[in-house]
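G., the chain you wanted modeled:
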Amino acid sequence: MANPWGVPVGFGAGTGITSVEQARTEARWAEQAGFDTFRVSQIFGVDPVVALAAVGSDVPGLHGVGAYVDAGVTELRPGIGTSDPRVVGAPRETLAGLLAG
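Predicted structure as tokens:
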């Protein structure tokens, strides 16, 4: 998105993304809408690393993809630094959904 300061403008999909297909749809929308970057939340939904790895090649017009990280999780690696099953299980469930589709 063009702006007078030359600062990239990104779109954050929030915590409601629950599948790779949903992330793909949102990322394509962000690209078509003219955003520079696309982000997915790492908490309560799809695992962003797995989802963004699958989505990245679909949106060549974006200058970057990334994840919003919840400050309550002390480590970025799943299962390290947290015992929350939603954090530990997210990569496994996201990858299983991707492989099933």
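DSSP finds three helices and three strands in the chain.

Shout if anything looks off.
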